Amino acid sequence: MADVVLVHGAWHGSWSWRRVVPLLWAAGHRVVTVTLTGLGERAHQLSPAVTLGTHVDDVVTAVRAEECRGAVLVGHSYGGVVVTGAADRLGEEVGALVYVDGVVPLPGESWSTRNPPEVQAARRAAIEDTGVLPAPPPAAFGLTGADADWVARRQTPQPGGVYDDPVSFDLERWLARPRTYVDCTSPALATVGPAKQLVGSQPGWEVVRLETGHDPMVSAPAELAGVLLRVAAR
Fold first, then answer.
1. I want to staple 220 with a disulfide (CB 3.0 to 4.6 A). Which of 39, 47, 100, 216 is the partner?
2. 3-class secondary structure, 154
3. Which of 45, 95, 109 minimizes the C-alpha distance to 233?
């Protein structure tokens, strides 16, 4: 049995893993889902004071409260930046890292760093205007029909303070960890393209491609669970 810690991406919450969690339970694993401050069922905690550091603290606190050891730490999309910072602080409390179509930073980079300039400008303007990043339509993640409706009902604004907040971590120690990247290719989300390029330039990555959109926990839960189960079994 392994501990599997699931960290959602922007505009999402622990609810987004609902179709994956039972599949991990069925295989005998313990699952910890983390909802980041200001999102999901914690939307009432939305505040200008919420930063990337707040979200890293959320993950560190959850892992330590559950007394995890060698946990598989999973980050979706923006959650990739969060788990990178959290893993640096947690040491042996986590083992393998899984980035689900995730943002992969270098030390000192932020979620915004590898966004195209026009995306940076639009997002910073939205934050300046409202203090948050409004949720995009689920079609942007390749979702349609009932899946799109389900996600649209649950998405919440993203705290603006996380966008340009840099992550600090020891690159050499991070590169020594087992790392898997789940590359969602159909349709591919353009804003995570630079992260995929970075993954291709670094040693030590296992890359698994899923022919689904950016929210595979919604659109392809069995396939995503299969990847997580293989990592957890090692």
1. 216
2. helix
3. 95
State how far the alpha carbon of 26 is from the alpha carbons of 33, 224, 233, in Å. Answer: 16, 14, 14
Query: Following DSSP, what letter does each residue of 199-214 receive, concatenated?
Result: HHHSTTEEEEEESS-S
Residues belonging to the active site: 77
Phi, psi for residue 35 in degrees, rounded to 5 = -100, 125
Q: Report yes or no: 101 and 79 within 8 Å, Cβ to Cβ.
A: no
Q: Is the pLDDT of residue 1 over 90?
A: no
Q: Which two tokens stand for residue 91?
A: 């040491």
Give the Cα separation of 74 and 96 in Å (integer). 9
Over the stretch 170-183, which tens digit does the pLDDT of each residue have? 999 999 999 999 99
The model carries a pTM of 0.97
Would residue 91 be called left, alpha or beta, if left means φ above 0 and alpha means ψ between -120 and 50 degrees?
left
Tokens of residue 203, six digits: 């040693």
Angle at which helices 52-65 and 79-90 cross, to 10°: 50
